[in-house]
Task: structure prediction
Amino acid sequence: MDGLTILTFFSSFSFLFFGIGCFFSPRMKLEFMRYGLNKQQRWLTGALQLLGSIGLLLGLFISPFLSFISTIGLFVLMLLGLWVRIKIKDSVLQSSPALFYALLNLYLAFQYGALIFI
Result:
């Protein structure tokens, strides 16, 4: 298994876990309240995370274009998450997961883009 596949699985399973958490985790509910976001925004975030996760996995088997689109979506989602954390004045440590996942998915987007467009 190559590095791109490993990172794709890592990102996909992370967002699968986070997406499900948006619907069922009491801790996640409290976090979204702390972010100043409502139930609909939490559910939208969870749904987008699940869609991105599924798109990444399916892209491995169907088309790198699907993985490319999914990584772009997850990158934007994590940039928005980072913006929320900066807005509520979270520490660098608290904000680092959003930054990490934004950068990871940006890297994956470049890798999948290279497979498609080059």
Notes: Residues 78 and 102 are 5 Å apart (CA to CA). Helices lie at 3-24, 26-35, 39-61, 64-87, 92-117. The chain is about 90% helix and 0% strand. The two ends are 22 Å apart (CA to CA).
